[in-house]
Design goal:
Layout: E1 2-7, E2 10-15, H1 22-29, E3 48-51, E4 54-57, E5 70-72, H2 85-92, H3 102-115, H4 121-127, H5 139-152
Parallel strand pairs: 1-5
Antiparallel strand pairs: 1-2, 3-4, 3-5
The chain binds FE2/S2 (inorganic) cluster (FES) (2 copies).
One FE2/S2 (inorganic) cluster is lined by residues 96-101, 133-136.
Length: 156
């Protein structure tokens, strides 16, 4: 079936199988491999993208359902060589080790700060609660997101 949607601000139109998941469409059709596919059980959250500005696990969305919607992936965060503050925060505060969970964490962080510029640590933990990190123990991820929030608000 034919589907048309916006991905990172660009209009995209493709023929897809009705069963194709959005995570596979992004990775295999569009080559946006920053979005990771980490499980078959909707548990890991490595596949989180922004879907009409809301963080969504892209393995739970059929591409056919995404017609007319706006999808934003981790590739959209860096612009002309300038990192998004959430990317910079993960770099400054060691928010990653292997990096597999990082794209999903970054997109959830971006969505959180867009709706809540000064979140509490509890709100940060809640925002990433649907995602699994097997390396960091989460403390450095929370610190990274706090760094990004403080930087965006100009209090660092
Ligand atoms: Fe694991 Fe989507 S790939 S939750
Ligand atoms: Fe390795 Fe999170 S940094 S899974």
């Amino acid at each position: 079936m034919e589907v048309s949607l916006f991905v990172n601000g660009e209009y995209v139109i493709r023929e897809v199988e009705a069963r194709l998941l959005l995570v596979h469409f992004l990775r295999d059709e569009l080559g946006l491999t920053g979005t990771h596919w980490g499980c078959d059980t909707t548990n890991c959250g490595a596949c989180v993208v922004l879907y009409d500005d809301e963080p969504v696990k892209s393995c739970t969305v059929l591409t056919a359902m995404a017609g007319g919607h706006d999808v934003r992936t981790v590739e959209s965060l860096e612009v002309d060589g300038t990192l998004d503050p959430v990317q910079q925060g993960f770099m400054e505060c060691h928010g990653l080790q292997c990096g597999f969970c990082t794209p999903g964490m970054l997109m959830s962080a971006r969505a959180l700060l867009d709706r809540s510029p000064d979140p509490t640590d509890h709100e940060i933990r809640e925002a990433i609660s649907g995602q699994i990190c097997r390396c960091t123990g989460y403390a450095s991820i929370v610190k990274s997101i706090r760094w990004a929030a403080d930087t965006e608000r100009g209090v660092l």
